[in-house]
Amino acid sequence: MKMALRWFGPSFDSVDLHSIRQIPGVSGVVSTLPDLAAGIDWPRERIVDLKNTIEAEGLELLGIESVNIHDSIKAGTADKDMYIERYINTLKSLGSVGIDLVCYNFMPVFDWTRTDLAKVREDGATVLAYDQKLLDALHPEEMLAQMGKKSNNFLLPGWEPERLGGIRELFGIYQSVTTGSLFENLVYFLKAILPTCEHYGITMAIHPDDPPWSVFGLPRIVKNGGDLLRITQAVDSPHNCVALCTGSLGSNPKNDLPGIIRSLGGKIAFAHVRNLRHTAEGIFEEAAHYAADGSLDMVGIMEAFGDIGFSGIMRPDHGRAIWNEVALPGYGLYDRALGTQYLWGLWDALSRTTE
Ligand code: DNO
């Protein structure tokens, strides 16, 4: 198992590589080119630059999170093949510089959704939070404006202003898309790209929907263990894998995370491990990685990763904003660094007791 931190690149992240390098047990980062909107063919020299920048600090580029998928592919519109071709070209460039892991999601319009990016906790730390009742009272455009205001002036991953600027049109293209056709569009996409992935040795890791239920009436197809298994079985390839995100799946308390990890086994290529607190149905807030701070069975989760012999890339996920750090919400240095140490602590202790 290798531990990574997510890093958005020098112009988009408050955290520098030098600091990441000083976290014990973190050997690399997963990164992306945040200025390239979904649907753009990534210039190879930009990828080479990113890799060189990371390696110059003694870290590895352990994967790309994410190469986002254009809405035409997800909605299955007439121009989808053009965007799939560009995605394939990007994969070829990534593969040619030795990148072997690509994370993506298949959520219509939005990536992750929260109703608060800085909910103040009793100790003064702030966290990302979600309340279905608040969301139901909002129009998507209002939510977009709120997210923008609370982003600390950072570009939020998956919330590219130029794409979401046309939010009404975006909703329009999904009007006739059902969960069934969204799933078929995912299978169509995977069948088209996996031969390239196999050629270059790139594993695709699909990220669960966050939260794992429909928002604003849009269809969702990556909500639980059954959905993830079905996706991995729909196109049979060792490169068709999963990014197991405990926080996304775990916002629905019905999702038995250790059970899901065991059922997916070797299909998990990438793991985002974080904790959250359930407040009531459809209401949750994020928490420290430390098990007792939230509702998720962090020990059982790490034990399940041990049981499946997990040897992929793991990263801590959204941290609380603490110690006056100003960073991209969820992606400061301090709490994620604490998270890595907790995850390594569990991992080391659990592997000692099972030896
Ligand atoms: C949010 C992240 C997501 C994730 C994408 C994967 O903080 O977990 O943006 O990276 O959904 O494509």
Description:
This protein has 355 residues and is an alpha/beta fold. The mean pLDDT is 96. The chain starts with a strand and ends with a helix. Helix 12 (257-264) packs parallel to helix 13. The strands form two sheets. An eight-stranded parallel beta barrel has the order 1-2-3-4-7-8-9-12, surrounded by four helices. Strands 5-6-11-10 form a four-stranded antiparallel beta sheet. Strand 1, helix 1 (17-21) and strand 2 (26-31) form a beta-alpha-beta unit. The chain is globular. The chain has a single domain (2-353), classed as TIM Barrel. The chain is built from 14 helices and twelve strands. D-mannose binds next to strand 4.
> Biggest sheet, strands in spatial order?
1-2-3-4-7-8-9-12
Structural class computed from helices and strand pairing: alpha/beta
Contiguous helical run count: 14
At the first level of CATH, what is the class? Answer: Alpha Beta
Please, how many domains?
1
Low-confidence stretches: none
Shape verdict = globular
CATH H-level superfamily: Divalent-metal-dependent TIM barrel enzymes
- Note the beta-strand portion: 15-25%
CATH fold description: TIM Barrel
Global mean pLDDT: 96
Quick one: how many beta strands?
12
Backbone CA Rg? 19 Å
The major pleated sheet works out as: 8 strands, parallel, barrel
* Ends distance: 16 Å
Order of helices and strands: EHEHEHHEEEHHHHHEHEHHEEEHEH
What ligands are attached or bound here? D-mannose
**Residues in helices, as a percent range:** 40-55%
